[in-house]
What does this fold into?
Amino acid sequence: MATFGERLKRIREQRGWSPSELAERSGVPYETIYRVERGTHQEPRVSIAAKLARALGVSLDVLAGVYDEESELLAAAVALVGT
It folds into this structure.
């Protein structure tokens, strides 16, 4: 299973963003993002994780590894069809 930092980096790269761009969009310092992605800061505070998730447009569950992004997208699509 991927770490929080690995998931963060993967999703950030999927968006085509640099760590600096994510820092600007999220309001989280670049240094924090750098350390999280490299595993030297393994468990950021919930407030930091929430800012990162919000900026990336994913739920905190996706970033934390509870759900993967594809599962979340499928669930959202099913919910829309059901309405």
